[in-house]
Design brief:
The chain is of the alpha/beta class and 222 residues long. The protein is 37% helix and 11% strand. Helix 6 (137-153) links the parallel strand 3 (123-128) and strand 4.
Length: 222
């Protein structure tokens, strides 16, 4: 996936040395769904020239946190985990394989809420679907809701949003999330004043995520 981010950077390089395209290079966005949602998230994390990242239904390897996904699988929910994903695809460095077991993945000093930190303080909208267990609804919601705390620490809480709404197929964007999408596009790509304080799920009980189980720190002021 880092190669995908490299490719996005080369496209932006080409735009910077090309005239006549009528593209505002200060208002660039990147988006994708499923594995392309992972790619969009990685591109936004490593390419500082992207003003808005929209990661849709990226699941494990994207919006989900490995620790939470493993706990979901232990609870009997068929969710993609680190140990499964390294057998299926070559999205990560082979160096990650040694840490993919349920025991060792917990020893990593990071998880994917820190992917949001790499995008900060630029615009980030995480779009998720709670109807697909493989995506890890509790994991993606809890992980990225935790990611919003990093934006809070930086004083730009409304630059990151999380919108988790079900009732549709994988990657079939529902009209119920259109207003959330419009708010972020209009603010970060069109320069309009919109309300982007959006952190919501249509699932009860915080989608099962218990903050105290995973978060042993308070939000600082950075």
């Amino acid at each position: 996936m880092t190669a995908w981010a490299w490719g996005v950077s080369r496209v932006i390089d080409a735009l910077e040395i090309t005239t006549g395209h009528n593209i505002n290079l200060q208002r660039l966005g990147v988006t994708g769904c499923s594995r392309n949602g992972k790619g969009a998230f990685i591109a936004g994390a490593f390419e500082q020239r992207i003003a808005l990242t929209i990661a849709q239904e990226s699941g494990s390897g994207g919006a989900g946190c490995w620790r939470v996904s493993d706990d979901m699988l232990t609870a009997g929910i068929n969710t993609q985990t680190a140990s499964e994903i390294v057998q299926e695809n070559v999205w990560f460095s082979p160096n990650f394989n040694a840490f993919s077991s349920p025991t060792l993945v917990r020893t990593l000093p990071f998880d994917h809420h820190m992917l949001a930190a790499l995008v900060a303080p630029r615009g980030l909208l995480v779009i998720e679907n709670p109807d697909n267990d493989w995506l890890g609804p509790e994991s993606t919601w809890g992980c990225q809701k935790t990611g919003t705390k990093i934006y809070q620490a930086l004083g730009v809480a409304d630059s990151m949003g999380v919108s988790q709404v079900g009732g549709h197929n994988h990657c079939a964007f529902p009209t119920s999330q259109q207003a959330d999408l419009n708010a972020f596009v209009n603010k970060f790509l069109k320069g309009q004043a919109t309300n982007t304080s959006i952190v919501r799920t249509d699932q009860p009980n915080n989608v099962g995520f218990v903050d105290a189980t995973y978060i042993d720190w308070t939000v600082p002021t950075l």
